[in-house]
Amino acid sequence: MELKSGYGLDPDGYIISDVSMDKIDLRYMPCIEETVDWLKNLYQQQLHSVYLYGSVPRGDAVLIKSDLDIIAMFRTKLTASQLDELKKLAGKLTKKYQSLVREVGIAIADYDYTFDTSNYYENAFLKEICVCAYGEDVREYFGPYKLTPEIPISFNGDICEVRNRVLKRMKAASDEDFKILLQGFCRKLIRTYYSMTMVRSQIWTTRLYEQSKVVVQYFPEKEDVIHTLLNWIEEPPADRNPAYKLLHKEGEWTCRNFIKEAGKFC
């Protein structure tokens, strides 16, 4: 399908969400239901709601290769021990369902932060990319959203912080952790490049391969880089040095150019 201006948007230019509970392959439901049950049991009154995002609610997840991405929203902040407990839960579920998903990832959201009006555009992520699997669905309080600079900035404006954190962790990572960090940062870079073209292209997509096509339309000089990143997502290289050098270089480029490019409208 050709990607052109208006793709993924309604006639008035508002984002059309491409996720739904109805799109979820039933094979993922036991993992989703057990995750929700654990969250309810462990956090009881603190847990407000649970959301899914990514390839599973989009309906194009690949068995074993895709992650189950979850956001748990809490009424109060978790303690350090509770955060550690949550991390262990994600690891436990990942191990149990390793024949189904690559990883069960559980991110957290704060209820008060979510409803702070100054964070309105950050909640475009909840509104347009997530589905509610449990609890009160807060997405109805936000949007609709058009592709304005606030959207890409709220989605990927943290690229410098992420770059610094990931590259630091890579230096001391085991081989397995290095691969996981590399794959995650490759995805982050492609999505950040896409965010830098989102406003001027007026193309909305959450699919990585489609985002890659949009990037090449506006940054043709990045075609080889995109190809390499996509290959590393599928099969990380055995030699760390080329990966580290490329991610460092491209991370610097995105930091220097993100705000300027993300705000362009042609």
Look at the helices and sheets and give the structural class: alpha+beta
Cα gyration radius (Å):
18 Å
Oligomer: single chain
Label the overall shape: globular
Provide a descriptive summary of the structure in words.
- The chain has helices at residues 29-43, 55-58, 80-96, 111-114, 124-129, 150-156, 159-172, 175-201, 208-218, 223-234, 240-262, and strands at residues 47-53, 68-74, 104-110, 130-135.
- The chain starts with 28 loop residues before the first helix and ends with a helix.
- It is globular and about 50 Å long.
- It has 266 residues and is an alpha+beta fold.
- Helix 3 links the parallel strand 2 and strand 3 (104-110).
- A four-stranded mixed sheet has the order 3-2-1-4.
- Helix 6 runs antiparallel to helix 8, helix 8 (175-201) packs across helix 9 (208-218) and helix 8 (175-201) packs parallel to helix 11.
- 53% of the residues lie in helices and 10% in strands.
- The mean pLDDT is 95.
Write the layout of secondary structure elements.
Blueprint: H1 29-43, E1 47-53, H2 55-58, E2 68-74, H3 80-96, E3 104-110, H4 111-114, H5 124-129, E4 130-135, H6 150-156, H7 159-172, H8 175-201, H9 208-218, H10 223-234, H11 240-262
Parallel strand pairs: 2-3
Antiparallel strand pairs: 1-2, 1-4
